[in-house]
Protein backbone atom coordinates (compact mmCIF):
# COMPACT_ATOMS: atom_id res chain seq x y z
CA UNK A 1 0.00 0.00 0.00
CA UNK A 2 2.78 2.42 0.90
CA UNK A 3 4.54 1.78 -2.42
CA UNK A 4 1.27 2.29 -4.30
CA UNK A 5 0.85 5.70 -2.65
CA UNK A 6 4.45 6.54 -3.56
CA UNK A 7 3.88 5.51 -7.18
CA UNK A 8 0.77 7.69 -7.49
CA UNK A 9 2.73 10.66 -6.11
CA UNK A 10 5.88 10.21 -8.20
CA UNK A 11 4.80 12.30 -11.19
CA UNK A 12 3.46 15.08 -8.95
CA UNK A 13 6.69 15.18 -6.94
CA UNK A 14 8.79 15.31 -10.11
CA UNK A 15 6.66 18.12 -11.53
CA UNK A 16 6.96 20.18 -8.32
CA UNK A 17 10.71 19.57 -8.28
CA UNK A 18 10.98 20.70 -11.92
CA UNK A 19 9.02 23.89 -11.24
CA UNK A 20 11.08 24.59 -8.11
CA UNK A 21 14.32 24.26 -10.08
CA UNK A 22 12.99 26.70 -12.70
CA UNK A 23 12.31 29.42 -10.12
CA UNK A 24 14.92 32.19 -9.96
CA UNK A 25 17.52 31.43 -7.31
CA UNK A 26 17.94 33.90 -4.43
CA UNK A 27 20.40 36.66 -5.24
CA UNK A 28 23.71 35.87 -3.55
CA UNK A 29 25.80 38.40 -5.45
CA UNK A 30 25.48 40.90 -2.64
CA UNK A 31 27.26 38.39 -0.40
CA UNK A 32 24.78 38.88 2.42
CA UNK A 33 24.18 35.89 4.70
CA UNK A 34 20.59 34.66 4.73
CA UNK A 35 18.38 31.79 5.85
CA UNK A 36 15.02 30.69 4.46
CA UNK A 37 12.91 28.41 6.64
CA UNK A 38 9.84 26.37 5.78
CA UNK A 39 7.26 25.86 8.56
CA UNK A 40 8.14 22.76 10.58
CA UNK A 41 5.68 19.89 10.24
CA UNK A 42 5.54 16.30 11.43
CA UNK A 43 8.90 16.35 13.20
CA UNK A 44 10.80 17.77 10.19
CA UNK A 45 12.25 21.24 9.65
CA UNK A 46 13.58 22.42 6.26
CA UNK A 47 15.92 25.34 5.57
CA UNK A 48 17.96 26.84 2.75
CA UNK A 49 20.83 29.22 3.53
CA UNK A 50 23.78 31.14 2.13
CA UNK A 51 26.92 32.10 4.05
CA UNK A 52 29.83 34.13 2.78
CA UNK A 53 32.44 33.34 5.45
CA UNK A 54 31.80 31.75 8.86
CA UNK A 55 28.31 30.32 8.97
CA UNK A 56 27.94 29.06 12.51
CA UNK A 57 30.09 28.13 15.48
CA UNK A 58 30.45 24.65 16.99
CA UNK A 59 27.03 23.39 18.08
CA UNK A 60 24.88 20.24 18.23
CA UNK A 61 21.28 19.33 17.45
CA UNK A 62 19.06 16.65 18.94
CA UNK A 63 17.96 15.78 15.39
CA UNK A 64 19.54 14.30 12.30
CA UNK A 65 20.81 17.08 10.01
CA UNK A 66 20.70 15.84 6.41
CA UNK A 67 21.38 18.07 3.45
CA UNK A 68 23.07 18.99 0.23
CA UNK A 69 25.48 21.74 -0.78
CA UNK A 70 24.01 23.60 -3.77
CA UNK A 71 26.93 25.91 -4.57
CA UNK A 72 30.46 26.52 -3.30
CA UNK A 73 32.42 24.52 -0.75
CA UNK A 74 30.78 23.90 2.63
CA UNK A 75 33.49 23.14 5.22
CA UNK A 76 32.84 21.88 8.73
CA UNK A 77 34.51 20.15 11.66
CA UNK A 78 32.87 16.84 12.54
CA UNK A 79 34.10 13.95 14.68
CA UNK A 80 37.72 15.17 14.83
CA UNK A 81 37.94 15.71 11.06
CA UNK A 82 37.53 18.61 8.63
CA UNK A 83 34.90 17.82 5.98
CA UNK A 84 34.41 19.61 2.66
CA UNK A 85 31.00 19.18 1.07
CA UNK A 86 30.59 19.86 -2.65
CA UNK A 87 27.44 19.84 -4.81
CA UNK A 88 26.33 16.29 -5.58
CA UNK A 89 27.03 14.62 -2.24
CA UNK A 90 24.84 14.17 0.82
CA UNK A 91 25.58 15.53 4.31
CA UNK A 92 24.44 13.29 7.19
CA UNK A 93 25.10 14.55 10.72
CA UNK A 94 24.03 12.34 13.61
CA UNK A 95 22.08 13.72 16.60
CA UNK A 96 24.22 15.18 19.39
CA UNK A 97 27.42 15.28 17.27
CA UNK A 98 29.12 18.72 17.51
CA UNK A 99 29.82 20.48 14.19
CA UNK A 100 30.33 23.96 12.79
CA UNK A 101 30.18 25.48 9.31
CA UNK A 102 32.14 27.91 7.16
CA UNK A 103 32.84 28.69 3.53
CA UNK A 104 35.69 26.74 1.98
CA UNK A 105 36.30 29.45 -0.63
CA UNK A 106 35.80 33.21 -0.95
CA UNK A 107 32.62 32.64 -2.96
CA UNK A 108 30.68 31.40 0.05
CA UNK A 109 28.32 28.42 0.03
CA UNK A 110 24.61 27.72 -0.33
CA UNK A 111 22.86 24.61 0.96
CA UNK A 112 19.58 22.97 1.89
CA UNK A 113 19.11 20.97 5.07
CA UNK A 114 16.39 18.98 6.79
CA UNK A 115 16.31 18.30 10.52
CA UNK A 116 14.57 15.02 11.40
CA UNK A 117 13.57 13.75 14.84
CA UNK A 118 15.35 10.40 15.47
CA UNK A 119 12.09 8.82 16.66
CA UNK A 120 10.72 9.08 13.10
CA UNK A 121 13.53 6.90 11.77
CA UNK A 122 13.11 4.54 14.75
CA UNK A 123 9.46 4.07 13.82
CA UNK A 124 10.23 3.53 10.13
CA UNK A 125 12.93 0.96 10.95
CA UNK A 126 10.89 -0.96 13.50
CA UNK A 127 13.08 -0.11 16.48
CA UNK A 128 16.46 -0.97 14.91
CA UNK A 129 19.54 0.98 16.09
CA UNK A 130 19.73 4.49 14.64
CA UNK A 131 21.65 4.62 11.33
CA UNK A 132 25.12 6.18 11.51
CA UNK A 133 27.04 7.48 8.48
CA UNK A 134 30.73 7.62 9.35
CA UNK A 135 32.44 10.88 8.40
CA UNK A 136 29.32 13.00 7.84
CA UNK A 137 29.46 12.84 4.01
CA UNK A 138 28.30 10.28 1.47
CA UNK A 139 28.37 9.99 -2.33
CA UNK A 140 26.06 6.97 -2.26
CA UNK A 141 23.38 7.35 -4.98
CA UNK A 142 20.79 5.69 -2.71
CA UNK A 143 20.97 8.65 -0.33
CA UNK A 144 20.89 11.15 -3.19
CA UNK A 145 17.70 9.54 -4.49
CA UNK A 146 16.08 9.19 -1.06
CA UNK A 147 16.66 12.85 -0.13
CA UNK A 148 15.45 14.33 -3.43
CA UNK A 149 11.85 14.96 -2.37
CA UNK A 150 12.73 16.23 1.12
CA UNK A 151 15.41 18.58 -0.21
CA UNK A 152 13.18 20.29 -2.76
CA UNK A 153 13.19 24.07 -2.78
CA UNK A 154 11.69 25.69 0.31
CA UNK A 155 8.77 26.99 -1.77
CA UNK A 156 7.81 23.44 -2.78
CA UNK A 157 5.26 22.52 -0.10
CA UNK A 158 4.90 18.90 1.01
CA UNK A 159 1.76 17.36 2.46
CA UNK A 160 2.20 15.11 5.49
CA UNK A 161 1.51 11.85 3.64
CA UNK A 162 4.10 12.69 0.99
CA UNK A 163 6.57 13.61 3.73
CA UNK A 164 5.93 10.34 5.58
CA UNK A 165 6.58 8.34 2.41
CA UNK A 166 9.81 10.24 1.80
CA UNK A 167 10.96 9.73 5.40
CA UNK A 168 10.29 5.99 5.13
CA UNK A 169 12.47 5.80 2.01
CA UNK A 170 15.19 7.92 3.61
CA UNK A 171 15.25 5.85 6.81
CA UNK A 172 15.77 2.65 4.85
CA UNK A 173 18.39 4.23 2.59
CA UNK A 174 20.31 5.41 5.67
CA UNK A 175 20.01 1.94 7.18
CA UNK A 176 21.32 0.29 4.01
CA UNK A 177 24.23 2.71 3.57
CA UNK A 178 25.30 2.65 7.22
CA UNK A 179 25.61 -1.15 7.23
CA UNK A 180 25.47 -3.53 10.18
CA UNK A 181 25.65 -2.05 13.68
CA UNK A 182 26.04 -3.76 17.05
CA UNK A 183 22.80 -4.90 18.65
CA UNK A 184 21.83 -2.82 21.66
CA UNK A 185 20.50 -3.94 24.99
CA UNK A 186 16.71 -4.13 25.23
CA UNK A 187 15.23 -0.64 25.60
CA UNK A 188 11.82 0.37 26.92
CA UNK A 189 10.12 2.56 24.32
CA UNK A 190 7.01 3.12 26.46
CA UNK A 191 9.12 4.46 29.35
CA UNK A 192 11.03 6.78 27.02
CA UNK A 193 7.78 8.02 25.50
CA UNK A 194 6.24 8.70 28.92
CA UNK A 195 9.34 10.69 29.89
CA UNK A 196 9.18 12.68 26.65
CA UNK A 197 5.49 13.47 27.18
CA UNK A 198 6.28 14.61 30.72
CA UNK A 199 8.97 16.97 29.39
CA UNK A 200 6.56 18.47 26.86
CA UNK A 201 4.11 19.21 29.68
CA UNK A 202 6.80 20.90 31.78
CA UNK A 203 8.58 23.21 29.33
CA UNK A 204 8.19 26.28 31.51
CA UNK A 205 9.71 24.94 34.73
CA UNK A 206 12.74 22.97 35.97
CA UNK A 207 12.46 19.17 35.74
CA UNK A 208 14.44 16.62 37.76
CA UNK A 209 15.47 13.11 36.78
CA UNK A 210 13.55 11.85 39.82
CA UNK A 211 10.36 13.28 38.33
CA UNK A 212 11.04 11.49 35.05
CA UNK A 213 11.67 8.17 36.78
CA UNK A 214 8.39 8.52 38.66
CA UNK A 215 6.52 9.38 35.46
CA UNK A 216 8.08 6.55 33.44
CA UNK A 217 8.43 3.81 36.05
CA UNK A 218 12.04 3.24 34.98
CA UNK A 219 15.16 3.73 37.09
CA UNK A 220 17.19 6.82 36.23
CA UNK A 221 20.13 5.13 34.49
CA UNK A 222 17.96 2.78 32.42
CA UNK A 223 15.70 5.69 31.49
CA UNK A 224 18.64 7.85 30.39
CA UNK A 225 19.91 4.99 28.19
CA UNK A 226 16.45 4.29 26.74
CA UNK A 227 15.80 7.97 26.05
CA UNK A 228 19.06 8.33 24.13
CA UNK A 229 18.36 5.15 22.18
CA UNK A 230 14.99 6.35 20.90
CA UNK A 231 15.39 10.13 20.76
CA UNK A 232 19.10 10.52 20.05
CA UNK A 233 19.97 12.74 23.01
CA UNK A 234 19.66 13.12 26.78
CA UNK A 235 16.40 14.18 28.49
CA UNK A 236 18.00 17.49 29.53
CA UNK A 237 19.18 18.38 26.03
CA UNK A 238 15.83 17.32 24.57
CA UNK A 239 14.02 19.66 26.98
CA UNK A 240 16.40 22.51 26.18
CA UNK A 241 15.84 22.08 22.43
CA UNK A 242 12.06 22.14 22.82
CA UNK A 243 12.37 25.36 24.84
CA UNK A 244 14.52 26.81 22.07
CA UNK A 245 11.85 25.81 19.54
CA UNK A 246 9.40 27.88 21.59
CA UNK A 247 11.84 30.80 21.65
CA UNK A 248 12.27 30.77 17.87
CA UNK A 249 8.52 30.72 17.28
CA UNK A 250 8.06 33.60 19.74
CA UNK A 251 10.78 35.65 18.05
CA UNK A 252 9.18 35.10 14.66
CA UNK A 253 5.94 36.49 16.12
CA UNK A 254 7.84 39.64 17.13
CA UNK A 255 8.30 38.95 20.83
CA UNK A 256 11.27 40.54 22.60
CA UNK A 257 14.26 38.32 23.45
CA UNK A 258 13.86 38.64 27.22
CA UNK A 259 10.13 37.89 27.08
CA UNK A 260 10.62 34.90 24.78
CA UNK A 261 13.31 33.51 27.09
CA UNK A 262 11.15 33.84 30.19
CA UNK A 263 8.06 32.34 28.54
CA UNK A 264 10.06 29.30 27.39
CA UNK A 265 11.37 28.52 30.87
CA UNK A 266 14.89 30.00 30.75
CA UNK A 267 16.26 31.86 33.77
CA UNK A 268 16.91 35.01 31.73
CA UNK A 269 17.92 36.25 28.28
CA UNK A 270 21.63 35.50 28.70
CA UNK A 271 20.84 31.94 29.83
CA UNK A 272 18.71 31.41 26.74
CA UNK A 273 21.33 32.99 24.44
CA UNK A 274 24.05 30.62 25.67
CA UNK A 275 21.86 27.63 24.88
CA UNK A 276 20.79 29.13 21.53
CA UNK A 277 24.44 29.50 20.50
CA UNK A 278 25.21 25.94 21.61
CA UNK A 279 22.27 24.59 19.60
CA UNK A 280 22.45 26.65 16.39
CA UNK A 281 25.93 28.18 16.30
CA UNK A 282 24.58 31.75 15.99
CA UNK A 283 23.04 34.24 18.40
CA UNK A 284 19.26 34.78 18.39
CA UNK A 285 19.79 38.29 17.01
CA UNK A 286 21.90 37.08 14.09
CA UNK A 287 19.44 34.27 13.35
CA UNK A 288 16.59 36.79 13.13
CA UNK A 289 18.67 39.18 11.02
CA UNK A 290 19.46 36.47 8.45
CA UNK A 291 15.81 35.43 8.21
CA UNK A 292 14.72 39.03 7.71
CA UNK A 293 17.52 39.64 5.19
CA UNK A 294 16.09 37.04 2.81
CA UNK A 295 12.47 38.19 3.28
CA UNK A 296 13.15 41.75 2.13
UniProtKB/TrEMBL annotation:
Record's superkingdom? Bacteria
Which positions fall inside the HTH araC/xylS-type domain? Answer: 193-290
The family database entries (SUPFAM superfamilies) matched by this protein are listed as:
Homeodomain-like (SSF46689), Regulatory protein AraC (SSF51215)
The answer to keyword Transcription regulation applying to this record is yes
Query: Which keywords fit this entry according to its UniProt record?
Result: DNA-binding, Transcription, Transcription regulation
- Which portions of the sequence form the region Disordered? 1-34
GO MF entry, a single one = sequence-specific DNA binding
- InterPro entries annotated for this entry? AraC-bd, AraC_XylS_family_regulators, Homeodomain-like_sf, HTH-like, HTH_AraC
Q: Which PROSITE patterns match?
A: HTH_ARAC_FAMILY_2 (PS01124)
> Which residue stretches does the UniProt record annotate as biased composition, category Basic and acidic residues?
15-34
Pfam families attached to this UniProt entry: AraC_binding, HTH_18
Identification of the protein by name: Helix-turn-helix domain-containing protein
Q: Which organism is it from?
A: Paraburkholderia franconis
Amino acid sequence: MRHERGAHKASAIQERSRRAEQRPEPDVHGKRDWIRRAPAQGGVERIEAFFQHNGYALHRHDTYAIGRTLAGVQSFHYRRSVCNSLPGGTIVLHPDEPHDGQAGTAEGFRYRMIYVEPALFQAALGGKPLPFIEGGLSDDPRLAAATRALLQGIDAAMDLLEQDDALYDLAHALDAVSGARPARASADFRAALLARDYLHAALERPVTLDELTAASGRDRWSLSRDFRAFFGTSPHHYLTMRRLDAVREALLRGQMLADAAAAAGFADQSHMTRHFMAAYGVTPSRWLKMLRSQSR
